[in-house]
Amino acid sequence: MPRPRKCRKVCHLPKTQEFLPVNGEVHKEMVVLTVDEYEAIRLIDKEGFSQEECSIYMQVARTTVQLIYNSARKKLADALVDGLPLRIEGGDYRICEGEEEYWACGGCRKRHRSCIHMVKEAGTMRIAVPLDENKQDVCIVLARAPYFLFRDNGEDRVVENPAANAQGGAGIQAAQFLVDNKVDVLVTVRCGQNAADVFKAAGMKIYKSVNKAAADDLNALEEGRLEELTHFHGGYHGVQ
Q1: pLDDT by residue (tens digit) across 150-194?
Q2: Do 121 and 19 belong together in one domain?
Q3: What is the CA radius of gyration of the chain?
Q4: Which of 130, 152, 154, 160 is the most exposed place for a label (fewest CB within 10 A)?
Q5: Closest CA to 113 of 237, 238, 1, 221
Q6: Are residues 90 and 127 in the same domain?
Q7: Based on the domain organization, do 84 and 183 belong to the same domain?
Q8: Considering only CA atoms, which of 159, 186, 167 is closest in space to residue 175?
């Protein structure tokens, strides 16, 4: 007897479920993308997840995610190249109930706020924000920021960035400095790929700054209004 297929977890249904060519032609054939295939595309291509990370969020094996993702990409190619209508429906899936202990998928905002508060109340989260010379505003270049603001259990302190004046490899040096200081969450305008790899290896979360003042970003983080940073640039002119 074949083993029953495991339902794939998705965060929410798509806002638009049908896409039609604008040429006015009537097509008997329609490409059907299942909801779980849509979720794999959303997580990997939009949110920037690896297939392994996607498998964790969808709660299936990595090989299963690879099959889902490859099928979805083939269907999207058929719809785009042949100009066919596309509909999103069906599949083996279940809607997320928001009970997971983590959030980073771009969907469960309510759970994200709970998670932030849960860690904060436990007193185990250290947040870092790169600061400009005035020690108040967010510096747009992470590696060359003159200072970092560290927040531990509601208490703030400002420390100098030892990598600010480095001749080369400032991104890696700044990243290692934050890792050595046991930072759990980084809020930054942007981040180089090399530094991001160091942060990921250390299990650090990276959120995108949207405010000029660091204090405003910290408040937004605690209220669940910051998005996780998923796109990282390559190094340029020795700066990251």
Answers
A1: 998 778 999 999 999 888 788 889 999 999 999 999 999 999 888
A2: no
A3: 21
A4: 154
A5: 221
A6: no
A7: no
A8: 186
